Amino acid sequence: MAKVRLEEIKRRFNNVTAIEDISFEIPDGEFWVLVGPSGCGKSTILRTIAGLETATSGKLFIGDRLMNNIPARQRDVAMVFQNYALYPHMTVAENIAFGLQMRKVDAKLIQERVATVARSLSLEHLLDRKPKQLSGGQQQRVALGRAIAREPQVFLLDEPLSNLDAQLRDDTRAELKQLHQELGITTVYVTHDQVEAMTLADKIVVLNRGRIQQIGEPQSIYAFP
Ligand code: ADP
Ligand code: ADP
To answer: Could you tell me the pTM of the whole model?
Structure first.
């Protein structure tokens, strides 16, 4: 877990400025949601935090460490995309445990972590299945579990629920919230969905044309009639 701080981050692609003057600090353990129209720069911000994009200028800190020149694989960050990609030959439990095994985490701790994640994401009864024996929604839950089981400092999600049907989206959203409450990992979440933003966010960042329009708690962003 760690705070995430962006200082005047800018990213230009040739002549296109994707994001500009992006500054905010996410306190350790908070869940922030980025919203705004397609093309406003949400993914570029997420990818910059992950190290998949390099800022043209500005500074990125995770914890107190300046990350600009730290490659993605050396960042303690997990990212989940719209399209999950699980290891097809491994069971659900093995998929979730994978990142921990790579880090040579103690077997008992791995078991505990897998159990916690499986409970939060309602996967307990599926642990011995292979991905192809799961529905799309179940597979995406495994992808979420796999990303978060090793408890990265920062968890990044780019529209992780948008390929799911409405009921699954509601269930998975609730489970994700539960998981965040249990693990308390600093999270940045991109969505088009107002309900997701409202129910998940500690703070919402509203972007427009690559700039921050507003940052606030959900109640201050979406007015209620
Ligand atoms: P969002 O995630 O909000 O839809 P993006 O961060 O994907 O927005 O894109 C922001 C802007 O930057 C868009 O105008 C997009 O076309 C542009 N952009 C993003 N990635 C690239 C790239 N690799 N090359 C050129 N332009 C890009
Ligand atoms: P979204 O709108 O869901 O964020 P996009 O379809 O805009 O996703 O972008 C998907 C990928 O294409 C991203 O990796 C982004 O960096 C890249 N991309 C987006 N816009 C452009 C562009 N104008 N030129 C090149 N690559 C782009």
So the answer is: 0.86
